[in-house]
Amino acid sequence: MTEAALGASIQLHVLDLAGDTRVIEGAIGNSLMEIIRSAGIDDIPAFCGGCCSCASCHVHVDPAFVSMLPPMSQDEDDLLDGSEHRAAGSRLSCQIPASAALSGIRLTIAPQE
Ligand code: FES
Fold first, then answer.
1. Which of 13, 17, 49, 69 supports an S-S bond with 43, CB 3.0-4.6 Å?
2. How much is the average pLDDT of 65-85?
């Protein structure tokens, strides 16, 4: 049985564009983008719906969690290269499935282009 099938969830600490930290929960298996949007944080428009083609779900992941993230695809890397806000820890949140290892992850929503 998978973690998702067990209905487990994790906690995210999200610094939004207004400078407020929101502590939210989401189901393991959903993408971090889906969790953020489901929590009502609309700083992430997610124009492409999570298919790695818009970069509007750009976040900066706290360095303590970067090594726990899944590897970045070439498409994701290329999209982030087009962002003037790319920094250490930059990822597209639609490309990161929530997993138990990421519980408590801290991330900052990057400004939109
Ligand atoms: S939602 Fe479009 S790239 Fe993530």
1. 17
2. 97
